[in-house]
Design goal:
The complex is a heterodimer of chains A (313) and B (330). By secondary structure, chain A is an all-alpha fold. Helix content of chain A is 71%, strand content 1%. Chain A has a single domain, classed as Orthogonal Bundle (ABC transporter involved in vitamin B12 uptake, BtuC), CATH 1.10.3470. Chain A contains twelve helices and two strands, in the order ααααβαβααααααα. A two-stranded antiparallel ribbon of chain A has the order 1-2. Chain B has two domains: 131 residues, Response regulator (Rossmann fold); 142 residues, Response regulator (Rossmann fold), CATH 3.40.50.2300. Chain B is 42% helix and 19% strand. Chain B contains ten helices and 13 strands. Chain B is globular. The N and C termini of chain B lie far apart (45 Å). Classes of the chains: A mainly alpha (313), B alpha/beta (330). Chains A and B meet through helix 1, helix 4, helix 11 and helix 12 of A and helix 1, strand 8, helix 7 and helix 8 of B.
Chain lengths: 313, 330
């Protein structure tokens, strides 16, 4: 390829990377909080779907994606409340509850989508999703400006949300108690803090953000809902949290890496003359996950109380 | 982990079922009731491939007074056999497995139920009472290829998964393109998903950036992402609706729609089965010759008379057998 073509190619891949990484960023950031407090929520896929559907339905009827997003967060919080009730208060097995959330998320949203929207799409009022916004000066930059700074608001929001998340986790008393709860809940308990309350809060943050990640798919990246539109992104977000070593910025950059592979494989397929089987490219993020698991096994230790319900003595 | 638990649950359910069935199910046939069953590979309202069979089934109920039933079985071959067996043992005269993936399960089950016709969509099989039914999408895609090569600068094809019904359609498209201009660039991307509209949208953006102005999806529900990408990019970029009318999703970008009333074809078959007139000579393959099953409609004013003429000529040649739309691509 010509140097110019390579630059254009890279710029387009990077723009797509950011867009494709956004749902991972929201969802994995939320899961960082949940897991840091010791609650493993493998039901992210289900929560994302519920967020995706709620956002779509509310945007469909109100015509305003902001309301869709608010509704998705409400849906996510409801999921979080239920999840915390089962796993924190009732001390149910987190894996089983998470698996149930995935099944319920898919079943419930498919059912509602069919009952409410079947055969209705043709008569839809105009559906407004978050449309791309150009950043005045930056979007004028050659090559990268035009492509990187012409995204929708949810994509731009990601670094700021992660910044806020990192601040909350590392620079506030709440964050300290979250981190301690995941490592050593008994200490937190003996310091006079309520482990249950901290875990509820963390799970609520996790589910709300997962719902926003799902909502992004239906009110920002595309403007439609399909059954199973999340297509496994909730599971990828789980891997992102592990590879990102349970840190907000780790999750951010690993999300971008996954987004990059996703974008790259879509892009490489379209370029003639490159004959790497697309299945290989699609498998790359998962291979990467395996490699990281093997090589970072010792250094990337999960919170020690992860997945363990807390029983105060 | 989710998969493991799911599998274990399924396994236990199947065991329970096997236990329940081993008592010996009597074959119940209510005389005079024409029963048609459907195994759908996904949600029946998927606005694409899966919806076609479902609507056909409804039409069969309405037009032929049949008793109908459907079951959604996704990615679980163990369930395929069970579903076929369930229908056949209840005396269904016609069971449709709506996808190539059902073929093996039907072959296994069919031996035990000689009175049931097992039709398999997207298959070319013809073995006893297992009969492949296929629409040759390569023919309408050939026409789209002709239009793209006559009007555009480059074309991109976005497929769901690399399986014969999709690859064949794309071969048809490329043959259509080559018949007009052998040097016209065509690129192909597979998503590895039928639901990931976001990926389809990004794939379309990629192709647009590579210089394509005709982007055509064949990816079921995910395909809508392509129309959204075109809608956002603006006029001057074109696509076709696949299987249904998708004009509303990108009103200024649609050249036309490829309609596949596979349902009409299935109703025709079902009528023959009901009347005892269905003769098994070969597998069933719908093409442009079946004018009530497969046709392409153009939006008004989007194509010139010259292009329309070329399309009409291609249709005539395909129907007459002068053009092999599935000729190997060199």
């Amino acid at each position: 390829m010509e140097p110019l073509a390579i630059i254009t190619f890279l710029a387009a891949v990077l723009a797509a990377t950011w867009r494709l990484a956004t749902p991972f960023i929201f969802t994995s950031l939320g899961e960082v909080f949940s897991e840091r407090a010791g609650v493993l929520n493998i039901g992210l896929e289900g929560v994302m779907l519920i967020g995706a559907f709620t956002a779509f339905a509310v945007t469909f009827f109100t015509g305003n994606p902001v309301w869709g997003l608010v509704a998705a967060m409400t849906g996510g919080l409801t999921c979080g409340l239920l999840f915390a009730l089962l796993t924190v208060s009732l001390k149910a097995n987190q894996i089983v509850v998470g698996a149930a959330f995935n099944l319920v998320g898919l079943g419930l949203t498919s059912f509602l989508y069919r009952s409410v929207f079947s055969g209705r799409m043709e008569t839809a009022r105009e559906y407004h999703s978050f449309s791309p916004i150009e950043i005045p000066l930056l979007s004028r930059l050659p090559f990268f400006g035009e492509i990187l700074f012409r995204q929708n608001i949810m994509v731009y929001a990601t670094p700021f949300v992660v910044l806020a998340g990192a601040f909350l986790l590392y620079r506030t008393a709440f964050g300290l108690s979250v981190r301690s709860t995941g490592e050593h809940p008994r200490t937190v308990d003996s310091a006079g803090l309520r482990v249950g309350v901290i875990r509820y809060a963390s799970v609520l943050i996790g589910c709300a953000l997962a719902a926003v990640g799902g909502a992004y798919l239906t009110v920002a990246h595309t403007n439609q809902f399909n059954e199973g539109i999340t297509s496994g992104r909730g599971f990828i977000a789980l891997a992102v949290v592990v590879i990102g070593r349970w840190s907000p910025w780790g999750a951010f950059f690993v999300s971008l890496l996954f987004g990059f592979f996703y974008a790259l494989q879509l892009r490489l397929q379209a370029v003639s003359g490159i004959t790497i089987p697309y299945q290989f490219l699609q498998a790359l993020p998962y291979l990467l996950t395996l490699v990281v698991f093997v090589t970072l096994r010792k250094r990337a230790a999960p919170p020690s109380a992860l997945g363990v319900p807390y029983k105060s003595s | 982990m989710k998969n493991k638990i799911w599998r274990q649950t399924l396994f236990i359910l199947l065991l329970a079922l096997a236990g329940g069935c081993s008592g010996g199910v009597e074959k119940k046939t209510e005389e005079g009731v024409f029963k048609v069953g459907l195994l759908s590979p996904g949600p029946v309202n998927g606005q694409g491939w899966t919806q076609i069979a479902y609507e056909a089934l409804l039409q069969i109920e309405q037009d032929l007074g049949a008793q109908i039933s459907y079951v959604e079985v996704e990615q679980s071959p163990a369930l395929f056999e069970r579903a076929f067996r369930d229908y056949a043992s209840q005396g269904y005269q016609m069971v449709l497995g709506h996808g190539f993936e059902f073929q093996d399960a039907a072959l296994t089950v069919a031996k035990d139920f000689p009175d049931t016709y097992f039709f398999i969509s997207s298959s070319k099989i013809h073995e006893g009472n297992v009969i492949g039914v296929d629409s040759d999408s390569s023919q309408p895609f050939y026409l789209m290829g002709v239009v793209a090569a006559k009007m555009g600068r480059g074309a991109g094809l976005i497929g769901g998964v690399e399986i014969p019904p999709i690859t064949n359609a794309f071969i048809g498209f490329i043959n259509g393109v080559r018949s007009v201009n052998p040097d016209f660039p065509v690129s192909t991307t597979y998503l590895g998903s039928w639901t990931d509209a976001a990926a389809a949208k990004e794939a379309a953006f990629s192709m647009i950036a590579e210089g394509a102005d005709f982007i055509i999806p064949d990816a079921d529900a995910a395909g809508s992402g392509v129309y959204q990408a075109l809608n956002e990019t603006g006029p001057g970029y074109w696509s076709f609706g696949i299987y249904n009318d998708y004009t509303s999703q990108a009103p200024s970008n649609m050249i036309g729609n490829y309609f596949n009333d596979y349902g009409q074809g299935l109703v025709n078959i079902a009528r023959q089965v009901r009347d005892g007139k269905f003769e098994v000579k070969t597998n069933v393959e719908f093409g442009l010759k079946d004018k009530d099953v497969i046709w392409v409609e153009f939006e008004e004013g989007r194509v010139t008379a010259e292009v329309l003429e070329a399309v009409d000529q291609a249709v005539a040649d395909i129907v007459a057998g002068k053009i092999d739309t599935l000729a190997p691509i060199k």
